[in-house]
Amino acid sequence: MDSKTLLVFLVVCFLSEFSYGQRDKKFFRKDYTYIESEQSFYKVHSVANTFNEAKRICALEGSMLFYAEDVEEFKAVLSLWQRTQPLIPWVFVGLTDQMSEGLFETVDRRPMSEVYTHWQRNQPDNSKDNEDCVCMDYLGTMNDYICETKNHFICKKTLQSLEWNNNCNMSNSDYIYNQDIGKCYKLHTTPMNWTDAYAACRIESTSLAVINNRMEADYLAKLTENTPEPLVSEQYLQGVYHVGFHNRFLEGWQTVEGTPMNVDAELWFNNKLPQNHYEECGSMFFNGRLVSNSCNMKSFFICEQQAIPTTNTSTSTEQNEENYMQS
Ligand SMILES: *[C@@H]1O[C@H](CO)[C@@H](O)[C@H](O)[C@H]1NC(C)=O
Ligand SMILES: *[C@@H]1O[C@H](CO)[C@@H](O)[C@H](O)[C@H]1NC(C)=O
Ligand SMILES: *[C@@H]1O[C@H](CO)[C@@H](O)[C@H](O)[C@H]1NC(C)=O
């Protein structure tokens, strides 16, 4: 190979390596599909929900309730919609006049004139003075509709807004990495009952935190003590965080992973397993001791994600750069 051929060869190698790396990086969550022409990720939800629930679920997933910027984006997303959920006739889109009747805005408060709109004839009509949320059918036609009805919806995440939490291998930067434990944790300070807390972690693609040993309990105790308590106006159980164990099926205390809870007795409050058969859900006192609670009690809660095992080999940095998204 002469030097000119070698140069061309190297440039080609570099370019293909580069484009391979770029393509690889376009990852947000397993349940989202990247659409190249829109530089964004989308998920068509198969479970219908009210408008405000839909907004909340997208936010927990790290994204936003979808509305189209223009007709091209509508068509691109329609093709995903028809490929993945062909039976869904219409969806809620992120447009509403809930704040002030007649003033339609996007959920991130942009004027409607900036985005794709295509009202059906004689719409919006605010029928019975009760229609503040916008539905769109597969023709892209829009109608104002009742926010409290349950409809399917689509969430969207732009590539531009994507940040990557390298240690935790996820896009959510609220998760705090602990290298000794090999897990990432997030304290949620919106009180929820145990089953809703379980769901909130799952929607974030994580799990209620499982405490296996004293090191984990002590670390979580430290985390909770260092977290200032926010002002919460509603009633909730103070002094504990819901974590990932329960006896809801009266099969004995088990973790959310389905394995028996076999932590040291000293980790249980009062050094003994809970006995009350009306308190079947697991929580942790601020000092890291485990206690049972009624599953319908609202309290703060902790989600966890397994971290990526760190390696100290010379190739680890290169691999990280190839495999994980960086903002
Ligand atoms: C990071 O997450 C992705 C998607 O969930 C997964 O496919 C990959 O195996 C994970 N990488 C590591 C090193 O755990
Ligand atoms: C938790 O709250 C939800 C409403 O947010 C309710 O539907 C559910 O039944 C409650 N779970 C328990 C175990 O009380
Ligand atoms: C990796 O190397 C750094 C510095 O050489 C060291 O501080 C760190 O503890 C090592 N991490 C692991 C997991 O061995």
From TrEMBL:
SUPFAM superfamilies: C-type lectin-like. Residues 37-156, 182-304 form the C-type lectin domain. Residues 1-21 form the signal peptide. Keywords: Signal. It comes from the Eukaryota. Pfam families: Lectin_C (PF00059). The keyword Signal applies. This is C-type lectin domain-containing protein.
